[in-house]
Every structure is written in structure tokens, then in C-alpha cells.
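Hey, can you fold this?
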Amino acid sequence: MSVNTRQRDRWTVLRAVRGTVLLGFGAFCLIPLVWLLLAPTKTDAQLVNGHPLSFGSLAQFGRAWQHLVDYNDSVLYQWIANSILYSVGSLLISVATSLLAGYALAVSRIPGRKALLVLTLIAMMVPPTALVLPLFLELNTVHLTNTALSVILPASFYPFGVYLAFIYFSTSLPKELLEAGRLDGCSEAGLFWHLARPLAKPLIGLLSFFSFVANWNNYFLPYVMLSEESKYNLPVGLGAVVSGTPALNPANGGSFLPITRPEVALAGLLVVVPIAVIFVFCQRFLVRGILAGSVKN
């Protein structure tokens, strides 16, 4: 057997091993999502005793949805509306402030610029849960707890977005373009709005996706800030539903709620589907945003 033949066989084996490993990781990630999609179509007994990936019926899916809707006078719709309000409100503020702060740090030489960058990095490393208690005390002082602002304002603090915008504008925005704009008499605000902002569309898409995912899945902050059930977002509200069902809490065996495992799976699906839909529509911007800034100029 020649050297070329042995080398070709070795590469064939390596490709087969690599393909097998990738398929294994793909199945590991995909199978739970398929199970979550199929679970609400089955009854509780079918879910426990049947094949994990079998399909039940659309009628059972409708009954599971109706059980969730019937909970506490259809408060589910209010939770969905609250989640959209909290997520979109935080997204708009965090993306706007991140772009402006990142642009200012990248193109100007303001006093204390390095100190601000260091503080931004430190803020990125602090776990958000560690700040919930001082934020609660601060917002309680100004009587904002149990309001939409108590969730939107803290979630708008986005140091990761500021640093990402700083990296993007430092590496991808040509300084010659800004100088040409200044020579034409454009103001600093005009440079940002007419030159930097149109070139930052991939960055805006990336920041919007990360911010939306973080705020849509936000559980601990709304759980601490909100005390009325009608003001919960979807994760906190569904957590209250799940905690009251005997399906996952046997201590609630006498509960009258018709919430069993299919309804719990449908609740999980409600949280996952919006993120999956947004990812499908934004994936082009996500790839361009991640790659932008990796190569200077």
C-alpha cells in the first residue's frame, strides 16, 4: 500500500469520526426540541407510557392550550403581552444606549475613556443576579417596584452591548470616512446618524437578538420586582402555573388545576417558539454581526 493510499484512508476515517461526532451533538440538541414539540399533542398517560417521539392528536393540543388559557381568567394572554412589552422596551433602550456609548468610546478621546472601558468590562463580569437586591432597594425608594419600569430599566443596562459596539466601531468604521464627513461640515451627531448607524446594521441585528433573548427569558428580575400576578412576564407566570400542578410537584396532589405534563410542555413551547422564529429571520444579520470586527478594515 502506497503512502498516498494510507494517507487517504486516514483522512477518510477522520472525516467519518468527525461526521459521527457532529451527528451525535446534533441529535443531542434536536431530540429534546422534537419531544417538546410533540408532547402537547398527547395525553398525560400517552406521555408517560407511549413512545417519547410519537405524535398524539391536534385535538389534544387544543385541549392543552385551552387548559392553559382557562387558568385564572385567561391571565396567560396578559403574561404574553407583558413579556412583549418588557422585552421590546428593554431592547430599544439597550440597543440605542449601547450604540451611542460604543460609538463615543470608539471615535472620541474623551477624558476617562480607558477607565470607562475598564468599568464596562467589570460590569460584564458581575452576575446579574448579584445586582437584583440592590436594584430592588433602589427602585423601591423611588416607588417603581411592581411596575413595568422596574423590569425594563434594569434590563436596559447592557455593558456587553456597549463593549461589542466599541469593538465594532473601533475596527470596522473607517476613520477616513469620518474625516471626510467632518471636512464636509457634518456634525458629530450627523456623523453617527448618517455614516456610522447605516454601517452598523449587522451590529444592531446582533445586539437586538441577544437583548431580546436575555429579556424574554428573564425570570429572576421580574420574580423579585413584580408582586401582582397580572404583571408577571411569561416565564414567571408559567413558573407559577407549573408550581401549582401535581405533575411536577407531588405535594400539590389535591390541586384542582387541569394542568398536567402536556400543559407544562406546551408552556415550555410558548417560551421557545418566539426565540426560534426571531432567530430564523435574523440569522443573516447574526452571522454578519459576529464576523464584523473580526478583521480590521
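Oh, and this one too while you're at it.
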Amino acid sequence: MSAGAGAVSSIAVNGTTIELVDRGHGRPILFLHPGIGIDFDAPVLKALERGGRVIAPSHPGFGTSQLPKGMSTVDDVSYFYLDLLEQLDLDDVLVVGVGLGGWIAAEIAVKNATRLAALVMGNPIGVKIGDRETRDIVDIWSIMPDEFNKLAYHDPKNGERDYKNLPEAVSLAAARNREAYARLAWSPYMHNPKLKSRLHRVSVPTLFLWGTADRILSETYGRGYGALIPNARFETIEHAGHFPHIEQPDDFARRTLGFADAQQPGVQRSRRA
């Protein structure tokens, strides 16, 4: 792995190279981005860095990360990240996932949580909560960007991007993000039918952070999801929608780090000494 102070670097895991940032010191924090991709200069990453070593990858197939042949499900991606944790020999990891990243985090935790200390899930997708006739999640691939922004953000301006005038590399990354997101979540739409019955296996402390202005998902969906994980805590964030880490980065990071510290106060005190 190559790394500089705050620079985007890369790592090869089982022959697949992905881009990531790896910066800060102390407790490892794995940040898993939503389906829109990741901004490596995002304020939330800098805020999380106050509480540890932030490792924020671009998922396989997203950004400039390679897509391994045969990787087509979130289940596949979760195994990729378990291999990443093992390769980096990380323990007591705080895993933070938003949207799609929350789904990946849940899939990791039900398989093997031995390297994890806690989970924080921001407006995650991944399960079916309503009945067969009820749509839990808006069909985001059938709506135009302006409508998506109105549903996803507390302030739709936070999602606006002038794609015609973006640098070519940024436009290409955005197109790859959309393609990869569809590959992973198109069908079954935005969930794994088997995950719901496996969430009782999550054995680490879990916090749901929910942007109350989310109209892609409902708060009822989020609370139903959280109720499937033993002793999960549910907190709301005002003035934020489907991407609370973007619209309220400091509040998101403060709650995340506070929750993690509360689980192992002795450990954190010793690490900071």
C-alpha cells in the first residue's frame, strides 16, 4: 500500500486494486461510502480522523477501483472487506457505513465480527421491512437527478452537480459509481432477502444515525431495520436526509465517535495517553 499525508493511495487485495485514503492514528475506523461514491476530501472524514485512523476505500467497481471478475453482489463485497481487514491486520475496528455502505457493514458483521468493535449505520439499505406489496425504497433509477436530490437531501442544493463542467476524471468516476451501484443493488432491489434473518448474529454494539429528511427511505424503515439487531440504538439527525454524513458531518462524526468511546472507555483512554 502506498500512502501520503491525506493522499489517495491504493491497496491490492487478492489481486484487486482499490483506491482509498488511510490517515490519522489510533483506533481503526473503516468508512464505507453510499452508492453515490466517496469524496476523499469530505469534511466527515476529517472529523472522524479526530478519533482515530480513518480508512476510507472506494468500493470495488466505484471511482477508479478495480472490479473483480465475478463480483456482483453486496455479499461478495462484504467478503472482500473481511479480507482487507485481515490483510491490514486490524482489530477493534469501528465500522461506519452510510446507505449502501451500511448494508455492506451489516453483511460483514453477520459473517465475522471478531475484528470489529462497533457498527455505526447511517440511513442504511439492505433489508425488506414492509410487506410484499409495500415499496420500502424509492426507485432511484427511474427518477431524474433533480427529483433524486429533492428526495435524498434536506437541502436539495447539497446534491447538485454540474456534470457538464466537471473534470473528465470526476465525471467518469460518477458514471462508474452509478454503474457499480446498479450492479450490486438492482435486483433484488436494494436488499438481500437473506440478511433480515441473519441480523440477530450482529454481536457488536450498533448505532443507527438517521437523517430525518430522508424521503428515499422512511424512518419507519430505519427503526424496523434497527429492531432486527440486538440492542441497537437509534438516533435521529435533524437537517439531514439520506446522506447525514454530507449534510451534518460534524454531528455525524461526533455521535459516531462518542458512541464508540462509550463502548470501551478504558481502551480509548489508554490509547490517547
